[in-house]
Amino acid sequence: MNMPQTRCHRSALGVVLALAAIWMVWGSGLSERVVSVVQAQQDAWTTDAARRMGIRLAETRDASGPPAYPVQPGDLLFFTNASGSFGAKNTLDAIVVVDAKSRKPIAMSELEADWAEGYVSHGNTVSPDGRFVYLPGIAPGAGLKGKNPSRLLVLDARTLKIHQIIVSGGERPHHAKVYVDHTGASRVLIEDFNWIDDSGNGKGFFILDHMNNNKVMAGMLPGEFRGNPYAGFTSPDGRYLYYGMPSADKRVRGEILGWLAKVDMQAMKVVQALPMAADPIWTVFSKDGRYAWVSQAGHDGDSKVTKIERATDPKGMDKILSESPAGPGVYGMALTLDNREIWTADKGEGTPAAKRRTTVTVIDADKMFVKRTIETGCRTNDHILLSPDGSEMWAMCNGTQEIVVLDVKTYALKGRIPMPNQGAVHGGTFVSYSRGAGGAVTAEVVSDQNGLQGSARTAYMAGKPWAPPAR
């Protein structure tokens, strides 16, 4: 009598145990699936700022390997880019490393075709510590059948290999630059080409922490500007960011005036809008931060530079003081160390081809008049940078695929640096090398399109000359 009951209990117990085992296995799998989804949404790289702006880290790679070029203490190198825009023959987007003393290219990146073929880059920079190179790239057009989106490549600065691929999902990554924030920390700022095709998909700008895996710290979307920001530059104290705001609709660009947005970098908020007579492009600041100058690419050759007196009180308002005519289609600018002259790149932005020039215009920064026009032979010159010691201006020539070096004191042409692959060249960054602890070679950025950086900036603010470290 008891045996059948025992068998029944054992049978029932077996079923229960089997069901429990199935539940545990299924439940375990469910738990893993839930955890993996959470991890995908809250990975270690994606910050709240990145999530809000829709910026993602698409890939991280091992960028180790032998260095692409030698360095030693006392070296001064210039990192620039070469792409296929403006009729250039280059097909693979690349970083070119130039010895700034000999003015000769010494290395060029060799990036895989899937992320380089047909890509167009309009700027680049290097992390303040010289560890990474940032190369924004606009994806190939439909004719080139590009399968990957526009991207920001983060390269190892020594091997020139891809370390990270960051995708904003925005319109087109445009410029990259270094700046010092209000706390004294150096940061990397990336901005989209927010208005070029009127898509409304631009991601404004975002800030990367190069010391923490290039995570997104903050940023602003075009909607927060109530317009489409084009190119931004920081005040000397790092408190404010000034963004040119051209008309967002290309159908009426040239008829509707642009404006300059003044952004409080602590609040990440536009605190003033200054009306401009044309498309505002570039902004430079006096050493004491009292004045700013803005280039405005006029239409049909009517270009100018506007001088602004900046408010000394955080609650005060900036005001426009005066204007100077500029070269046709003025674009980039640089201020001399003594703050007496503004050098402008006469790109021909918004100007008919017949009226474009191959010149650099020098403007008196105080009295606001054209002092000199320098013929350079540099076609489609958009960026112009001051060397860290203040003795030279480096002009980037997209149409002639070269860099032209000019003497600040004599205005003489000192040299031409042809791009090794005949690529269009936009912007660049000077990097200085010195001997660190234990004899290791250390690097620092000393100048880029946002002005002097690192020890060159420190010397400039103190009124002292800067020179590369001794070997």
| Oligomer type | single chain
Instruction: Please describe the biggest sheet, giving its number of strands, its sense, and whether it closes into a barrel.
Output: 6 strands, antiparallel
What proportion of the residues is helical, as a percent range? Answer: 10-25%
What do the pLDDT scores average to? 87
What is the end-to-end distance? 100 Å
How many individual helices? 4
Strand content: 35-45%
Low-confidence stretches at least 5 residues in length (pLDDT < 50)? 1-42
Number of strands: 31
Rough outline:
globular
Strand order across the largest sheet:
4-3-2-29-30-31
Structural class: mainly beta
Radius of gyration: 26 Å
Describe the protein:
There is one protein chain. The protein has 471 residues and is mainly beta. It has four helices and 31 strands. It has helices at residues 2-41, 48-53, 222-225, 454-462; strands at residues 56-60, 76-82, 94-99, 104-108, 125-126, 132-137, 151-156, 162-167, 173-180, 186-192, 205-209, 215-220, 232-234, 240-245, 259-264, 269-275, 279-285, 291-297, 304-309, 319-325, 330-335, 341-346, 359-364, 370-375, 381-386, 392-397, 402-407, 413-418, 429-435, 441-448, 451-452. A six-stranded antiparallel sheet has the order 4-3-2-29-30-31. Strands 1-8-7-6-5 form a five-stranded antiparallel sheet, with no helix packed on it. A four-stranded antiparallel sheet has the order 9-10-11-12. The protein is globular. The protein starts with a helix and ends in a 9-residue tail after the last helix.
